[in-house]
Amino acid sequence: MNETALNKALIAVFVIFGLNGLVFASWAARIPAAAEDLGIGAAGVGLLLLFSAIGSVAALPLAGSVAQRIGTAGTVRAGGITTSAASLAIAAGLNLGSIPITAAGLLVFGVGIAGWDVAMNLEGADVERRVGRTVMPKFHGAFSAGAFVGAMIGAVLSALGVSLSLHLLGILTVVCIAVLIVPRNFLQLPHHAAAGGADATAKPSRFGAWREGRTLLIGVVVMGAALTEGAANDWVAKATVDGLGTSESAGAVMFGIFVAAMTLTRWFGARLIDRLGRVPALRICMSASLAGLLLFVFAPNLVLAGVGAVLWGIGAALGFPMGMSAAGEDPVHAAGRVSVVSTIGYMAFFVGPPVLGFLGEHWGVRNALLVVGAAMLVSIAFAPAAAERKAAPEPA
Q1: According to the model, what pLDDT value does residue 58 have?
Q2: Residues with Cβ < 8 Å from 50, sequence gap 6 or more?
Q3: Helices 31-38 and 3-28, interaxial angle, to 10°?
Q4: Which residues 6+ apart lie within 8 Å of 118 measured at CB?
Q5: What's the CA gap between 35 and 247, in Å, rounded?
Q6: Distant-in-sequence, close-in-space partners of 133: CB < 8 Å, separation ≥ 6
Q7: What pLDDT sits at residue 199?
Q8: Which of 222, 173, 225, 237 is nearest to 23 (CA)?
Q9: What string of H, E and C letters represents the secondary structure of 344-357?
Q10: What pLDDT shows up at residue 245?
Q11: What whole-number distance in Å separates Cα of residue 319 and Cα of residue 56?
């Protein structure tokens, strides 16, 4: 493939991952503000998050098929525009103090984010395979960098008293323009045709990947990693405010600390994976994440909680991208396998946090986070499923 085109696709994937993180954090970092605008507690926030989860889980199994039909670029555009439209509804709901309108917006938000996410991971797996070295963690690092920027914007706007609805309106304007332009540099092909060769015209069975034992086990590994990351994304800010009696701005900064640690690890962690292999890297990361979670939950002050957030972020960094790389190794079957692994992972990523919200209503948000520790242990146990397999060489 033309090296210039490949480099352009590489940069475009970085940008799209970063935009996805920016959009997600613009909501996640200011969940306490949304709770205040709507007058709800942890259980109410959990119920709202459940609507986003329902939208995502419904869309994820179909996202791979959509990408096969219209290409990863078209799927990212559709997801970005859907997410932007949903942000308008969320902003309107918050401005009106309407829980039903906000919930409907989050439902559509989940649909858009799901399609966007699967498509960018498919494009990222294609680019990684063609580049010939581990770059998926760096793509996810771009997501985390976007989320960090989003969190810091949220903290500043919160301190300035800018409403969440106005914040979301500004973000969606940027996103709408970017998702129409940036994917022009993607590889563009409907994904099942990207592999080339005799198998390129053979469309994989839609549900075939759901019958593959290794794919399902990779999904289990990603499930624990996704729950670890998702719980932090949705609850670190709220847990800091409620558990340590700090301000909303401090909660947003704590979320930013978590995301910064995760971003740096994703950027530099590719070398760790290439040197040790996926399985040892997964086990090291998940162990660090478990230690950080426990420290964050039991820390008596903001400083120790911050140290826990750093360890948590370091540990949560590589599980999801390694799972995407493992699922996308075979380009012919990548769309189906990435869709399956994404569906399993995002069920934990999106459904887990609302459940934690309901538990947090009774136990306190920080204590409810202990449930995540069990999922980490499961990921550590099944890490060998993500071991590297040599892909068949591409035709000349």
Answers
A1: 87
A2: 351, 354
A3: 40
A4: 60, 63, 64, 67, 75, 338, 339, 342
A5: 14
A6: 270, 274
A7: 45
A8: 173
A9: HHHHHHHHHHHHHH
A10: 83
A11: 20
b/e for 137-151, b at 16 or more Cβ within 10 A?
Answer: bbbbbbbbbbbbbbb
The residue behind tokens 């099942």 is: 192
Query: What phi and psi values does residue 246 have, to the nearest 5 degrees?
Result: -100, 180
Cα angle 43, 49, 52 (rounded to 5 degrees) comes to 155
H helices of 97-210, in order, are: 99-131, 136-159, 164-181
Q: How far apart are CA 361 and CA 43, in angstroms?
A: 6
Q: How far is the C-alpha of 42 from the C-alpha of 364, rounded, in Å?
A: 9
Residue 91 per-residue DSSP state: H
List, for residues 71-110, the tens digit of each pLDDT value: 899 999 999 999 988 888 888 888 888 999 989 999 999 8
Angle between helices 278-298 and 371-381 (to 10 degrees): 170
Question: What is Dmax (Cα atoms) for the chain?
Answer: 62
- The dihedrals phi and psi of 393, each to the nearest 5 degrees, come to -65, 145
Tokens of 306: 């911050």
Residue 189 neighbours by CB distance under 10 Å? 16
| The token pair that represents 291 in the structure block | 């230690």
Extract the tokens encoding 94: 């918050």
Instruction: State both tokens at 257.
Output: 């600390």
What's the pLDDT score for residue 395?
42
Cα separation, 173 vs 27, whole angstroms:
15
| Distance between CA atoms of residues 327 and 334, nearest Å | 6
| Cα 385 to chain centroid, rounded | 21
How many CB atoms neighbour CB 283 within 10 A? 16
Tokens matching residue 85: 């439209």
Q: State the amino acid at position 241 in one-letter form.
A: V
Mean pLDDT, the chain cut into blocks of 10 residues (396 residues total): 85 94 77 81 78 85 84 92 88 86 91 90 88 86 83 78 77 86 82 46 59 89 85 80 82 84 86 86 89 88 91 87 84 79 80 75 77 85 83 44
How would CATH label the architecture of 3-184+210-386? Answer: Up-down Bundle (1.20)
Q: For residue 30, which phi and psi values (nearest 5 degrees)? A: -115, 25
Q: What is the pLDDT of residues 233-292, one digit of tens each?
A: 777 887 888 888 888 778 878 888 888 888 888 888 888 888 888 889 888 988 998 999
Mean pLDDT of the chain: 82
